[in-house]
Design the sequence.
């Protein structure tokens, strides 16, 4: 019988279908960013660990420089796929594909770089934070410091108020949407600039609780009926150039249960909290938004209207 963590892992993505991982191989944005970051971070002679290896492609990138790569994957179908693919590729013999749970695995020797791509927008659903924090504790207890370099090195998250069209051929359906970052969608109107609400630095202890309260100054009239969540993964810091190699997840747009009419100059206050690895509804349920009160002793009718998720 599965224990509670195993049940949650199955639900939250440990057993993402194999074809989904195949689609990730065709995601040029993701592939280009990781290939460049791994080529920068991994040097000849290094030992590398990948937690959640999927098809093995990131371990393959690492094997072009590293002496040894440990690729840990929990899904038995993907273990077979990774072993099969790596056997077809140059330096694939440097990668040892291990069927194990990333929550528990510890390599037999110290490693220089840990690659972990269990990333969902806003750090929801998948267990990136929990896996890395548990690994740090095991690693320090076994090998002492210093910790290896983690990839991504950091994650920057932002939120932005939108007016979003939820009409589909005349059918109104306010749904959660994932949008490509390089595409202009005519039904999406940005009402204010994004605000950064969290920065996770994996070289430091990371708290799984993510909480934020802040405000936006509306830049154009509209109907605030959605929030866009933006997640930028800082895969590698290029210190010699003062730059970073980044990977931007798809935007996630969450509909509001009730729209808030706004005009340019309005200040909208927003607050929410959730745990990394939690569900999208857990974030939705926590969100509160309202027009800011204009004066201490005067509460306009519009300022009393709040927006909450269903």
Sequence:
């Amino acid at each position: 019988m599965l224990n509670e963590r195993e049940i949650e892992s199955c639900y939250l993505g440990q057993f993402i279908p194999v074809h989904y991982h195949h689609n990730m191989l065709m995601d040029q944005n993701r592939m280009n960013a990781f290939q460049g970051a791994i080529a920068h971070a991994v040097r000849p002679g290094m030992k590398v660990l990948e937690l959640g290896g999927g098809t093995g492609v990131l371990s393959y990138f690492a094997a072009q420089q590293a002496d040894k790569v440990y690729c840990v994957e929990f899904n038995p179908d993907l273990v077979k796929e990774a072993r099969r693919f790596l056997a077809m590729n140059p330096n694939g013999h440097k990668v040892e594909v291990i069927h194990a749970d990333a929550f528990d695995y510890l390599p037999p020797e110290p490693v220089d770089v840990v690659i972990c791509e269990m990333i969902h927008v806003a750090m929801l659903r998948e267990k990136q934070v929990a896996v890395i924090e548990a690994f740090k504790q095991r690693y320090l207890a076994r090998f002492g410091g210093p910790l290896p370099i983690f990839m991504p090195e950091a994650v920057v998250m932002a939120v932005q108020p939108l007016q979003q069209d939820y009409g589909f051929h005349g059918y109104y359906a306010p749904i959660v949407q994932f949008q490509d970052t390089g595409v202009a969608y005519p039904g999406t109107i940005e009402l204010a600039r994004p605000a950064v609400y969290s920065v996770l630095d994996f070289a430091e202890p990371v708290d799984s609780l993510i909480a934020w309260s802040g405000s936006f100054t509306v830049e154009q009239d509209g109907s605030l009926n959605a929030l866009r969540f933006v997640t930028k993964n800082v895969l590698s810091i290029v210190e010699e150039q003062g730059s970073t190699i980044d990977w931007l997840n798809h935007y996630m747009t969450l509909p509001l249960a009730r729209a808030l009419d706004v005009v340019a100059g309005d200040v909208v206050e927003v607050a929410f909290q959730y745990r990394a690895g939690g569900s999208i509804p857990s974030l939705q349920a926590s969100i509160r938004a309202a027009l800011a009160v204009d004066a201490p002793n005067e509460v306009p009718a519009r300022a009393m209207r709040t927006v909450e998720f269903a």
In short: The first strand starts at residue 47 and ends at 51.
